[in-house]
Design brief:
Blueprint (H helix, E strand, L loop, with lengths): L30 H13 L2 E6 L2 E6 L3 E7 L2 E6 L3 E4 L3 H7 L5 E5 L2 E4 L3 E6 L5 E5 L4 E4 L4 H8 L2
Antiparallel strand pairs: 1-2, 3-4, 3-7, 4-5, 6-7, 8-9, 9-10
Length: about 150
């Protein structure tokens, strides 16, 4: 069981700062530290997307899945759909160490929104999301999905 090092502290509070700043000092970046860095990057990642002509910021944790259709990228939340200027591969890179996983050539899924998973006869999987939508996980992406989902 790991614990916080005795030199861990957060006493550099400055009310004049507009944004939080995190400084990591280390002699080398090991795998555990890299996980922490990745988690910090994910926590600060927000998606800028359009709906009804308005630009909005969406927290990545509110996103069920991201889909590319006809060279446009759509962000699907539980009750809303937005359009983003980002490409699907950019989302995949930004969300690599999060709860998102690519499930097809055109779709990245947030596994936190899965209600049920069902294997199909053709090697694919069907997922039922908490909002009632069904998505298919293509055979090629099943191993990554199973690893991320814990199957």
């Amino acid at each position: 069981m790991s614990s916080w090092p005795s030199h861990y502290h957060c006493d550099d509070k400055d009310r004049n700062l507009k944004e939080t700043e995190i400084v990591i000092r280390c002699s080398e970046i090991n795998s555990e530290l890299q996980k922490i860095i990745d988690a910090i990057k994910i926590c600060s990642f927000t998606i800028t997307a359009y709906k009804d002509g308005y630009l909005q910021k969406i927290n990545h944790e509110a996103v069920c899945y991201i889909e590319s259709v006809d060279e446009k990228t759509f962000i699907y939340c539980e009750n809303d759909v937005y359009e983003s200027k980002m490409k699907l591969f950019e989302f995949e890179e930004a969300l690599i160490n999060s709860s998102f996983v690519r499930i097809s050539k055109s779709c990245i899924l947030n596994i936190d929104f899965i209600e049920k998973v069902k294997p199909m006869l053709n090697g694919k999987y069907e997922v039922l999301l908490i909002n009632g939508e069904k998505l298919i996980i293509n055979r090629h992406y099943v191993p990554d999905f199973k690893k991320k989902f814990g199957l």
